[in-house]
Write a structure and sequence with these properties.
There is one protein chain. It is built from 9 helices and 8 strands. The chain is of the alpha/beta class and 234 residues long. An 8-stranded parallel sheet has the order 7-6-5-4-3-2-1-8. The chain is globular, with a radius of gyration of 17 Å. Bound molecules: pyridoxal-5'-phosphate. The site of pyridoxal-5'-phosphate has 12 residues, from β8 and α9.
């Protein structure tokens, strides 16, 4: 859990992040809006509620168990995305509170997409209900990281396209540490290309505490911020 630190207030942090995002939007000449997601892993509910009171309306959840234990206390007005590594056997427990999750950003395999599709179908006999997803791209081709390799992206896009209960909304990435800019530029190109191929694609989720302002300059429209908002995780 986060240690108490009198020098660090969520309010001040939030203001600074908003200012940085706005400055980056201006610099990039962007007219559209970038959403700031509060990444809640290891942060207690009271602190999350403080962030919500400041103006945060989008939460990012990493761990299924932690999410299930906290989600009952989140205000209904909040939108929640799942952003963590997912084994397909975790989809079932996640779907116990599925109605609160409006997007799963961390889909890196056909197996996972199929399981999300199957669980959505089971929960909802209403054919109009689908689960929005982002494909997580392992843009640095790192062995240890989740996500699909860039050259396998369209294989997965096509597989997702065949599923009736999953709707592809765009891409998410966690670039190699310290080399964000090079990889943000690659992601921007992949996203532009995806948008011209997939009519429902409108979301590029990239940028974290270290580099969210740069990500905005490269077309990100969701930045996922943990440490810069809540302080160091211990
Ligand atoms: C933890 C996490 C973040 C936020 O990281 P910070 O560096 O603390 O801002 C963003 N995205 C994902 C997927 C994460 O797991």
């Amino acid at each position: 859990m986060i240690k108490d630190n009198i020098y660090m207030s969520v309010e001040d942090n939030y203001k600074r992040i908003v200012e940085n995002v706005q400055a980056a939007e201006l610099k990039a000449g962007r007219g559209d809006k970038v959403r700031i997601m509060a990444v809640t892993k290891m942060v207690d509910v009271e602190r999350i509620k403080t962030a919500i009171a400041c103006g945060i309306s989008l939460l990012g959840e990493n761990r299924v168990q932690e999410y299930l234990s906290k989600c009952g206390e989140y205000p209904k007005s909040c939108e929640i995305h799942f952003i963590g590594g997912l084994q397909s056997n975790k989809i079932k427990p996640l779907f116990r509170q599925h109605d609160r999750i409006s997007m799963i950003q961390s889909v890196g395999s056909e197996k996972l997409a199929r399981e999300i599709d199957a669980q959505t179908r089971l929960l909802h006999s209403d054919a109009n209900i689908v689960t929005d997803i982002l494909i997580q791209v392992n843009i640095g081709n790192e062995e240890t990281k989740g996500g699909v390799f860039p050259d396998e992206l369209y294989g997965l896009v096509e597989a997702v396209d065949r599923l009736d209960y999953v709707r592809l909304r765009g891409l998410m990435t966690i670039p190699p540490k310290g080399e964000s800019i090079k990889y943000f530029a690659k992601m921007q190109r992949l996203f532009e290309d995806l948008k011209s191929n997939v009519s429902t694609a409108d979301t590029l989720s990239m940028g974290m505490s270290e580099d969210y302002a740069v990500a905005v300059e490269y077309g990100s429209n969701i930045v996922r911020v943990g440490t810069a908002l809540f302080g160091q995780r211990f």
